[in-house]
Design a protein that fits this description.
With 398 residues, the chain is mainly α. The protein folds into 2 domains: 94 residues, no CATH class; 294 residues, no CATH class. It contains 12 helices and 4 strands; from the N terminus they run E-E-E-E-H-H-H-H-H-H-H-H-H-H-H-H. Strands 1-2-4-3 form a 4-stranded antiparallel sheet, with no helix packed on it. Strand 1 and strand 2 form a beta hairpin. The two termini are 43 Å apart.
Length: 398
């Protein structure tokens, strides 16, 4: 940095932070490095500002103009004193702070919305399954509702439709197969056991991820990652052994869901590299393809006749309110998954893993309170150990 001392062949007046010069025929204007400015005599009536402290140039505007004119031309020069840390009137750092704060607020809203929607979905999903024990149709309705919502959004231009090609759907197909299996298996599990138990078992998904990646893909992990699996597996086992309403179908459904979602994540990483489809539209396409895959299997496994009888029984038992339950669980299933994919676009995988762990805690606690699920202390301890292991895994993995 150099101190402003004088301008050759020019009359200099410092008024605040603007330097006036009178154009002359001489095109050359140079700075010379001299001691601080003394008091200058001026024929102008405007006050002359002298500073005992050196002035440092921040920026100069309009200095390159060399056109001759009888009028004074204006050079805007921003400067700051030696003991200041930034140019006077500078809001550069202040402008950065609101943007950073806004980003954190946005992520916080995503997380809060994600957890709230997931809790609401699990509550209504369990209510529907208690009155209408047909998990295949319930899973199909969830995907159908979300697909319909996105098709309407694209048709009305509320959301921009994704630009896809055959290669996109080809790479999406194995992801959709794994997503369909995981979704149905989790719904089957919830139809047989408590919501809290299903999510305790599903907290063991990191263990499946490491095992599949190690033995099928040949990947290796640091020692802390393997050590974090001990509390995950031990906590899930302890919770399963002490579960009062243990059911083998419910237990196996949660385990199959874990395995399917691990393969879904693997296929997603391999197949979606370089694709320019955002989180919201990506999940919408995934729902559409999963719906096409699931519908014929749901008809084959349960069938319209069973659905009609079960629907009538549910309406007779619950009343018209049952229809609202079905709509709510379908809508909230799509919304919470959509928000989770949108969150993944904004945050790192580590932050997403931590958020997913906290989501399970909120679902487990809320379902125990709402459905009055009996929990033994040893069962709660197992759940806490498993969730702690999941958190440690997310830390060690990164």
């Amino acid at each position: 940095m150099s101190m402003i001392s004088s301008l050759k062949q020019s009359t200099v007046t410092l008024t605040g932070f603007e330097i006036f010069r009178q154009n002359s025929s001489a095109p050359t204007r140079r700075f010379s490095v001299l001691p601080p400015l003394p008091a200058l005599k001026s024929h102008r009536k405007s006050p002359i500002v002298s500073s005992a402290k050196p002035l440092f140039v921040s920026s100069i505007e309009g200095f390159g103009s060399l056109k001759t004119s009888s009028k004074l031309s204006l050079i805007t020069c921003k400067a700051y004193e030696a003991d200041r840390s930034e140019p006077i009137g500078s809001n550069v750092e202040k402008s950065k702070q609101p943007s950073e704060a806004a980003k954190k607020l946005k992520i916080g809203i995503y997380f809060a919305t994600w957890w709230a929607l997931n809790v609401i979905f699990n509550i209504y999903n369990k209510k529907v399954l208690n009155a209408f024990p047909f998990p295949w149709l319930t899973s199909t309705l969830s995907l159908a509702c979300g697909s319909l919502m996105m098709l309407i959004s694209w048709a009305t231009r509320l959301a921009e439709a994704p630009k896809t090609d055959f290669e996109f759907w080809k790479t999406l197909f194995p992801v959709a197969v794994a997503h369909t299996i995981g979704h149905v298996a989790a719904t089957v599990s919830m139809s047989k056991v408590a919501v809290s138990f299903t999510h305790i078992i599903k907290s063991g998904e990191p263990a499946f991820s490491v095992l599949v990646s190690r033995f099928l893909l040949g990947e290796t992990f640091p020692v802390p990652v393997y050590l974090s699996l001990v509390p995950i597996i031990g906590g899930c086992a302890l919770a399963a052994v002490t579960e009062l309403n243990f059911n083998m179908i419910g237990f196996m459904g949660a385990m199959i869901s874990n395995l399917a979602f691990v393969f879904r994540n693997i296929f997603s990483k391999k197949g979606m590299k370089g694709k320019s489809v955002g989180g919201m539209n990506y999940y919408a396409c995934l729902s559409l393809l999963s719906l096409l895959i699931l519908t014929p299997f749901a008809i084959a496994v349960e069938g319209p006749q069973m659905w009609a009888v079960g629907w009538q029984n549910a309406l007779a038992q619950i009343g018209p309110q049952f229809i609202w339950w079905v709509v709510a669980q379908s809508v909230f299933y799509h919304l919470y998954n959509q928000v989770s994919y949108m969150s993944l676009d904004e945050i790192s995988p580590l932050t997403f893993s931590i958020g997913n762990t906290m989501k399970r805690i909120s679902v487990i606690v809320s379902s125990i309170i709402i459905f009055h699920t009996p929990v033994q202390p040893i069962n709660a301890l197992g759940a806490a150990i498993a969730i702690l292991g999941t958190f440690l895994y997310s830390q060690a993995k990164q």
